[in-house]
UniProtKB/TrEMBL annotation:
Assigned keywords, A-Z: Cell membrane, Coiled coil, Membrane, Phosphate transport, Transmembrane, Transmembrane helix, Transport
CC per GO annotation: plasma membrane; trans-Golgi network
GO terms for MF: inositol hexakisphosphate binding
Name listed for the protein in its UniProt record: SPX domain-containing protein
Stated role: May transport inorganic phosphate (Pi).
Amino acid sequence: MKFGKEFAAQMVQEWQEAYMHYSKLKSILKDILRFKQKNKEPLTMATTTTTTKGALNRRASLYRAFSGLTNRYKPVSAMKNNEDEVILVSAVQEGGVEGDYQTMFLMSGEEGGEFELLFFRRLDDEFNKVLRFYKKKVEEVMLEADELSKQMNALTALRIKVDNPVVKGTDMVNLADKGFSSNSSSLSHSHPINGGKQGWTHMDVIQETEMSNEEEMKEIDDRHFRPAPLDVLDHVKINVELETPIATLRSVIKSSKSDLSFSKQELRTAEEKITQAFVEFYRKLRLLKSYCFLNQLAFSKIMKKYDKITLRNASKTYLQMVDKSYLGSSDEVTKLMGRVEDTYVKHFANGNRRKGLKTLRPQAKKERHRITFLYGFFSGCSIALIVAIIVSIHARNLLKSQGRDQYMVNIFPLYSLFGYIVLHMLMYAGNVFFWKRYRVNFSFIFGFKQGTELGYREVLLLSSGLSLLALAGVISHLDMEMDPRTKSFRTLTELIPLFLLIVVLSVTFCPFNLIYRSSRFFLIRCVFHCVCAPLYKVTLPDFFLADQLTSQVQAFRSLEFYICYYGWGNFKERSNTCEESEVYKVLYIVVAIIPYWIRFVQCLRRLVEEKDTAHGLNGLKYFSTIAAVTIRTIYSHQKQKTKTWLVLAAATSGIATMTSTYWDIVIDWGLLNRNSTNPWLRDKLVVPHKGVYYAAMVLNCVLRLAWMQQVLGIQTVPFLHKTALVAVVASLEIIRRGIWNFFRSVFTF
């Protein structure tokens, strides 16, 4: 792989604009090369002269005195020759502080020197940009380190308070004899050990394994004994109870604690949060170190390429400047990483360095070949079953049979539920693939437990397995109905969809560690938070899942039909009276608006907590969708269609469609920006091809219009049954949601 592609692949997407613009500098070098090729004859003569001169110098060097293996005596040829200098690099002083670097090109008078002069100007601009960004980020991580040190002080004091509730500040000195040791080193860069505020922690069992410089650190702790002040707890409030609905209701009545007592549950919660803070802070340090290394490597590559094209020796001088600059000489990040490692190992890994570093430096998940084989096998079987179903329908002429309408009304909605789920999983697998492709840290963003997030291969495995199960049920249903030997098993045949649903639910709620239990429980927890939306603090996984549920309205209606068909319908005779039940019609509306209602109340809670009017406007968008779905469903259930309800349905659906489309494209995706450097898009484009964004906007509008097609009177299509048309529209909405997920993530995450 060429360095340019490898350089772009290893960039941090959030910092993409701050990296050295390698391709731009490379394009200038190409201009220099083209100019050199146009003047090939002089270049050849210069090359011949240089080669002859080099050969004579090498021959003469054989007769010079040997300087020794230790290189104590430098030969004359090794001394710096000012006549061979091509550039001079200096730093501009601004108020006594080192400022930007400027390069003086000494050969600008030569033919084609203006191209090389332009190259060094652009090179200086890129280097100064990288240097400023790096300095800014180092200052930020130093401030974060100081803040993290304060948090560690609070945590160590909290440990003392929980283990000894009656302890006071005057009793701190006596705690050393009761099993407490001062081992909280500061993360501050100015005072790594002695100057930092040290705290106390109580460890029941200390297993000091693989700890470097253990005796030395212990001696330092004993010599510089400073207990953590307990008065820091006067400013600490841990809202651990606000994550439960009961605690939320209680907080409305009683806003805070009346005393400063802390429980072990609060201590565990504080430890979990600060542990996660350490892991993420260390990850940021690693990214910053990688940023420094990649840019240094890029400057080295581009300068060597310059030397190769121009036959000069300017890279040595410039790279010496890079090494002496803050970018090459600063070691704050490396030292801070070492202090973070020592602190984490001591406080959160019980002194086990290997265990601590394993958490701080997570290894990449190993791709298992059996997963790829299984989802490929399941996908192949699913395709074979689809072909078999099509052949069976065509051979038996089922589309023109008398039982066609009966099958589409009663059986098709049962199996379509699995189709909606499989399609959504396929879209999610595509999202995960592109998130990894464009280096979106989705596992941290969604709060997945480290190492338990599902990759796109795992999601494809689950979706292909479910599709294989559902298609096997469909073809077995058809065969048992057509085969004279099993035609009498009418009850068993009609129970196949219910059996499949029970299997899926059993796997989902299975308490055993089978089939990605951590991910299943994470999904169940998020669903429960969505159901109790007003009573839980809204997190990103919760409202992201709620957004996904808005595209699964037809799946919820299929679940309702399951209950009606097998509970009150005559499934043995393949008939139901659901459409005639007023209760079913009311629930048909309620089930459809539940996902939008969840997002509506989530927006209200965020509006109250964050005081951001954007959440209120977003809530109005979902409320307009609730009104549109309600009125449209009432209109569709009317036996005698009235123009009044048609106008109301068309008006509300039109308003909901326009507001949702505008919100998707402008607010969520950040597109249609007139002042953007990319016409009508946005300044930062993760996907390099602009046409993808224009196509996504057009496709989003088309799919939104398909969502309201039934209101406009397009009730049937000649070659499609009404039930199949509803399934097609629902599938298009799921596809639109998958596209929305990707463009929303690359803009917001």
